[in-house]
Design brief:
mainly beta, four-stranded antiparallel β-sheet, seven-stranded mixed β-sheet
Length: 118
């Protein structure tokens, strides 16, 4: 079982930066991959980025490559999503999720809202 709590959302202007945090608790976190997803109003949830706890391998959606960076602090059990050069189309609720390596994302946080004004 993994519990996830996101923070760091807010209202920013286009071109600004924002860093989201996801505090994870549970056993054997090194066996998990952590992901960030987002869901904009009226749209389906989409993958943003992911990282493995142990090796730190990262994966990104094409729409955020070069602007967003996912990282983790093992000592703090926290995963971050650094978002730079934000665009209005990045406006969404952002969710942190955990998946056992090779499995589905089965644990989700409550989400944090990001609004980017033009």
């Amino acid at each position: 079982q993994v519990q996830l709590v996101e923070s760091g959302g807010g209202l920013v202007q286009a071109g600004d930066s924002l860093r989201l945090s996801c505090l994870a608790s549970g056993r054997a976190l090194s066996r998990y991959a952590m992901g960030w997803f987002r869901q904009a109003p009226g749209k389906e949830r989409e993958f943003v980025a992911a990282i493995t706890w142990s090796a730190g391998e990262t994966y990104y959606a094409d729409s955020v490559k070069g602007r967003f960076a996912i990282s983790r602090d093992n000592a703090k059990n926290t995963v971050y999503l650094q978002m730079n050069s934000l665009k209005p189309e990045d406006t969404a609720d952002y969710y942190c999720a955990a998946a056992l390596l090779g499995g589905e994302y089965g644990f989700w946080g409550q989400g944090t809202q990001v609004t980017v004004s033009s």
